[in-house]
Sequence to fold (226 residues):
Amino acid sequence: DTGVSQDPRHKITKRGQNVTFRCDPISEHNRLYWYRQTLGQGPEFLTYFQNEAQLEKSRLLSDRFSAERPKGSFSTLEIQRTEQGDSAMYLCASSGTGNYGYTFGSGTRLTVV
Amino acid sequence: AQTVTQSQPEMSVQEAETVTLSCTYDTSESDYYLFWYKQPPSRQMILVIRQEAYKQQNATENRFSVNFQKAAKSFSLKISDSQLGDAAMYFCAYAYNTDKLIFGTGTRLQVFP
Fold:
């Protein structure tokens, strides 16, 4: 297993367009988390899944954001009608049974122009 | 609500010396997990060390150790024999059970030769 993979690494989009990011967790991890990180700040929690069930969504996650994890494997995060304020690094992490740490992907950097 | 506070935006240390990064947190839970993550300029978050709150013994990983003071809700990271490769952003994080990570705002560590 090569760790948590995120695709794409970078995305530049025009304001108002929709974007979708993908995260492939470590295969035996049943929990998957999405975070957003702006420059100079710590990551902020967006949402998380246990298997295919979305267990929690942050108040930061407006109606324009939606996340899915079909079949409890990879996850997608979609942002509709992007705004300049959505520009950030979007991080995905996964963890397994118990809590032995969370493994992060390299992130997707979104720039909305 | 749980919060994590890192009061040192920046720290610097000379190579081979020791540096301590501070972290305090707030929670009403008695059993939880604390983490230090390192984020180099490449941006991938790397787990440095993990502490389980029910364990009184401070965690140690090679040159990295923590001073966990549960009553004071303090969780500092000591880096011994600092190396140039230790330069990065360091984030303190809290998790209740297998819940989401809550991050502090980070401390930028510079290492001088």
